[in-house]
Amino acid sequence: MAASPGLVRLEQRLKVKIGEAKNLVLRNHGNAGPRDVYCTISLDQEEIFRSATAEKTQDLSAFFGEEFQFDIPREFRFLSFYLYDRDRPMKTDKIMGKVSIKKDDLHKYHGKDQWFPITPVDADSEVQGKVHVEVKLLLVEIMNDGYPQHMVSVKIQECSDLAIINGCCDPFATVTMHYTNKKQESKRTKVKKKTTCPNFNETFIFEQSGQRGGSQDRENMYSLVDEDAGFQEVRVALWHDCTGMFGNVFLGEVKISLGSLSPPQERNAWYFLQPRDSAGKHHRGDLGTLRLNLHYTSDYVFSSQSYDSLRNLILQSAAVEPITSSVAWLMGEVVSQKQDVVQPLTRVFLHHGQVVPFISALAKHEISKITDTNTIFRGNTLVSKCIDELMKLVGHHYLRATLKPTLDLVLRERKPCEIDPTKMQQGESRETNLANLKEYISMVLKAIMNSALSCPPVMCQIFSELRELANIYFPNEREVRYSAISGFVFLRFFAPAILYPKLFDLTTEQTDPSTHRTLTLLSKTVQSVGNLVSSKTSNQNFRETYMREVFSHCVTDKHVEGMRTFLDIISQMPNGNQKAYDTPIILKEGKMVKRAQGRKKFGIKNFKSRFFRLTTHSLTYSKTVGGRALCSIPVDDILAVERVEESSFKCKNMFQLVQPHRTLYIQAMNCVEEKEWLDLLTKVCLYNSHRLKQYHPGAYINSNWLCCKATSEQAPGCSAVSNYMECDLKTHIDSDREMERLRSLLMENMPKLEKLHKACESAQIYGGSRDLSVVGGVLDDPVASQKSISQVIASVIQLQQEHKNHERKFLRTVRYGSKQAPIGDDNYLLLASSNAKFDSNSSGNEMGTPIRKTSSSPC
């Protein structure tokens, strides 16, 4: 989360699916044989995620088929995807190329598959960061002849977010003055070690040589158009100091024209670093293409009171009769990508405790229209997608407790389970593979059947409502009460989690093709069991002959009856008296780097990589996955969890865990991981009565705190702890953020709302009770629908006006050339242009046409 002026904050989220790469180039030695390819996702140059390795790829292509989604906790300029060729014999990974997309262009590709060209990677393509430069034109009188001498003062103040070269950055700057007579003069700063944000604060003076003597007339005294040696341009280049055989590495440059500068004018501004003019001239040809599907959202969230009007309209939806006239249902119809509206809508209802009556009202409307019980809740309707989203939100820990032990075993053992004769590897035994598969199937089904009492209460409430509706509308068809639930539990919840464990955060390991095939067979079996428990017959139809054999050998009548009992239990109303955290629940685990805590009086406090595991009871770390815990920190002993200033250790993504007698310093792998660990650690200790109110943002090094210079390690903190929002451990929902997402969707679809509003008006002319057909169904009451649409349009217009007022305020306070809006990018200029258009349009049209914002716009 990035701060913005006033009470407004920026929230960014990205969901990306990496499809496949095609037409990849041959290796340098022309070998067209199989190779191992993987892809990484980076914000600017910081790696966030890495895909599984596509092993032994043929035909110069590689298929990934992986999906990643995460909140973006900081500003960025480019989203990049790097492709690597893993050379196992040499144990090196060679970069093949990258796809780089500017942040402001992400909205162009929202929600659709797109092929992107793969481009080469070199020093110029990796340029990032910005530099603060101050240029002054001076007029100095020379003591000998008394005539004024032109001089230029160039001050390199500081840089920010420079590129990292081979895990390090030792930057220095060169300042080159270009004269009008084609001559150049260069100077350089000192090298700053191990920092991407160096503070140089060095000034260089350049004199104008070749000044004419007494014949120079006064009217040309201030002119820089001296043909002999006038100042033309100053270039500031950043370099990484390297003593290797290839020399220093280019980090970026800035060109500042001096033609229009007159004394005593100066230019004091931040500039984005740019690649050299020669960049791209000697690149190789086509490197192939990469297919991606991107969903990027960027929302500026206002104070909670701003959304009260729209929020109340949405929360009243469950009580509106008929449900097709409610604001929530209408939103599901006007937004073309239903999933875009389902996610924030479900979160808002869940946060305010209205999700059960809302989903129940939607389900009642849908089940009342059912004519074929075999299709009950099987379509991608609003209610089906809302239940899917709800299960993802509240069922995460339930999935981990139920499936993770078995999935960990499958991923660890990697036993072959292929029983399709056409896909078996040479030397494999079909009987052995079938026995392995039967063992895993038995473990998965047993884990699911024994998990009924652990099912989250809100899921049980929803399933109870669905079961009751099935009894009301189909009293003589017993199997419908099971099919109404089994489709969600097995087909939409357990089966996808087994097939894609990484997507559901059940593992961090990459799955090889053989293991993925095992997971596919397990997922198919769970789906088949779900179909069988709600079927009138005990026969299952399989397209694959081998699956019929698997089912007959691995699934018994005992399993089917056990699953029906499981469905009976989870569709009963929960008593609500169970303690949520009697047994430890694993919240997150993964590798991080920790600094020695100083439990020994003597010794070096070095940094070591450890495997961390956070549960609802404690935070532990060990040397390896599953290894003996070297240290266990009870949740009750955590006094504060806060970020550490980068200058303390010259490391990014550092945070501190404050305990009663010492502080543990930890470095996360990237900014996304850091935010996730910070959020979870803060939540588990949120209600500790002895939490600190003040902390030290700097580290305690060499017997003093770097932030406040206090010498005592027990000195009270010098900064207030972060004001984290109180939230439930299992489901943290930012209602205001979700409301802003809904507002943005409504604004984008305002023309559709207006069209629907006019259609309702027309329908009233022919009779208010007449049904009105829309894209997804029928408006049962056009009169009530028109009222809801009018109210929601009024609320959205009011919110849009608040956004434009904030945008104007932002433009008045942010200067082009400041650190917030450096020179070299068109974000600020586009923002000013869109603001001017709004001012001209708003006077003539009250409702106005929604302006599509750039991702960097403050609104």
Automatic annotation (TrEMBL):
Alphabetized, the UniProt keywords read: GTPase activation, Metal-binding, Zinc, Zinc-finger
Is Nucleotide-binding among the key words of this record? no
* PH domain residues: 585-686
Map out region (Disordered) in residue numbers: 839-859
PROSITE patterns this protein is in?
C2, PH_DOMAIN, RAS_GTPASE_ACTIV_2, ZF_BTK
The record places domain C2 at 1-116, 127-271
One Gene Ontology BP term is: intracellular signal transduction
Q: Describe the location of the Ras-GAP domain by residue ranges.
A: 337-531
SMART domains, per database record: BTK, C2, PH, RasGAP
Q: Give GO MF terms, alphabetically.
A: GTPase activator activity; zinc ion binding
InterPro entries from the UniProt entry: C2_dom (IPR000008), C2_domain_sf (IPR035892), PH-like_dom_sf (IPR011993), PH_domain (IPR001849), Ras_GTPase (IPR039360), RasGAP_dom (IPR001936), Rho_GTPase_activation_prot (IPR008936), Znf_Btk_motif (IPR001562)
- Check the record and name the PANTHER family matching this protein: GTPASE-ACTIVATING PROTEIN, RAS GTPASE-ACTIVATING PROTEINS
Q: What is this protein called?
A: Ras GTPase-activating protein 3
